[in-house]
Amino acid sequence: MSVVTPATDVTTATNDVATGGAGNVTENATSDVTRLRRGACPSLPAPMQTGDGLLARLQPLQPLTSEQLSGLARLARELGNGIVEVTARGKLQLRGLTTAGAPRLSEAVDALGTVVPQGFPAEVSALAGLDPTERFDPRPLARAISEGAADLIPSLAPKASVVVDGGGALHLAALKADIGVTAGGEDNALILLANRPAGEIPLDRVPAIVVALLAKLAERGPAARMANLLMEHGIEALRAEFALAPIPPAAPRPPAEPVGLHALNDGTFALGIGLAFGQVEAEALQALAEAARAAGARHVEPASGRALLIVGLSQEVANALKNKASGLGFITDPADLRRRVYACAGQPACASARLDTHATAMRIAALAKGREVHVSGCIKGCAHPAPVALTIVGLDEGAGIVVEGTPRSAPARVVPVSGLAQAVRELLEKEDA
Ligand code: SF4
């Protein structure tokens, strides 16, 4: 996942899956009021407390060189507990930072030459501009929106988000966004408001309309989100106000799958590899960075869907690198069961955990017959905030089993951890009967 922002902005916005924990430690990080407000998410200068220490999230402005990726892995080990994550939105997270290590992170990331966006982010696909199936290159539009919205930042919600999707294979339809832009009819863009299709406009009007929509949100102050605006006005009124041409409903797109080999418009390939449970140990990440360097990769880009894209390879080299990545424990097959499972750090990494989430996840995924599974060490649900078919949650009394819910939902059953597999088997048999 890439993000486009103007270089001169002063704030950091993140809009990813919530990662649990409450307090943040911004006090000595910056005195900029705006930055403090938008630092409500776990940005580099404002890491967030979680059960395994402080967590910092970063979304590099530019793709990473293999040396930068290796440097980030080293920092994860030196300043944190060595666990690096790529989130569902394609953002990097370093976990388990100590109170001594966290304040050094921003400077250390700077020293790697990694530029972290400081402005209003407009998110684009990790393959934006390289994907031959894109209907348009979303980056110029995203940059214009980002620049146009810069002055609105102090009045916008910390998690206000804009996604600009050129309509390629790695589309961003699964991401929640206040405003979405995707390919419409010829030379048109489809505007989505709180993920609801609102209407089409010519591509060249996109930046002005999106900035005007953001301004309407900003007028309502920093708590306002597009879903509130829709409830207040109704979609028809917004359609009329912004001259969005109604469109017939479109069929949902098949999910984007970053894992695999992607042909690029410059004749090279990108190898997409997944992180099991969205996490990797620093040592494996460093070994991957070294392998990417040796393979002559142009860059590495975190991608939405808990993946990394290694870009600029020949097909032969990409296949060899895929084997290497698989040996390091990365997911190289989109059909891998772990792609259907969300699991947080769990025991022993997180002090709040009541479960060994990763071991449990593998056992339950094997029983789940392709259902989406979320295994959460406690009710915070750091790994995935949305409901899934089957959730297992660690509780003081044992393991809670939730059907079509989240770790915070009322469990259908609570069982001892030792009896979990049997209880899940029984429950699913009943469902399938
Ligand atoms: S146990 Fe899991 S969900 Fe709970 S705080 Fe720790 S990482 Fe988050």
Please describe the topology of this protein.
Layout: E1 2-4, H1 33-38, E2 48-50, E3 53-58, H2 66-79, E4 83-86, E5 92-97, H3 102-111, E6 122-124, H4 138-148, E7 162-164, E8 179-183, E9 188-193, E10 196-202, H5 206-219, H6 226-233, H7 235-241, E11 260-263, E12 269-274, E13 279-281, H8 282-294, E14 299-303, E15 307-313, H9 315-327, E16 341-343, H10 357-367, E17 373-376, E18 388-395, E19 398-405, E20 413-415, H11 420-432
Parallel strand pairs: 6-7, 7-8, 16-17, 17-18
Antiparallel strand pairs: 1-6, 2-3, 3-5, 4-5, 4-13, 8-9, 9-10, 11-12, 12-15, 14-15, 18-19, 19-20
Helix pairs in contact: 2-3, 2-8, 4-5
Bound molecules: iron/sulfur cluster.
Index terms:
single chain; 433 residues; alpha+beta; Sulfite Reductase Hemoprotein, domain 1; Sulfite Reductase Hemoprotein, domain 2; 4 domains; six-stranded mixed β-sheet; five-stranded antiparallel β-sheet; 20 strands; binds iron/sulfur cluster; iron; oxidoreductase activity; Cbl_synth_CobG-like; NiRdtase/SiRdtase_haem-b_fer; metal ion binding
Folded structure, characterized:
There is one protein chain. The two termini are 41 Å apart. The chain is 28% helix and 22% strand. Helix 2 packs antiparallel against helix 8. It has 433 residues and is of the alpha+beta class. It has four domains: 2-111, no CATH class; 122-241, Sulfite Reductase Hemoprotein, domain 1 (2-Layer Sandwich); 260-334, Alpha-Beta Complex (Sulfite Reductase Hemoprotein, domain 2), CATH 3.90.480; 339-432, Sulfite Reductase Hemoprotein, domain 1. Iron/sulfur cluster (SF4) is lined by residues 20, 50-51, 344-346, 350, 352-353, 376-378, 380-382. Iron/sulfur cluster binds next to loops. Keywords: 4Fe-4S, Heme, Iron, Iron-sulfur, Metal-binding, Oxidoreductase.
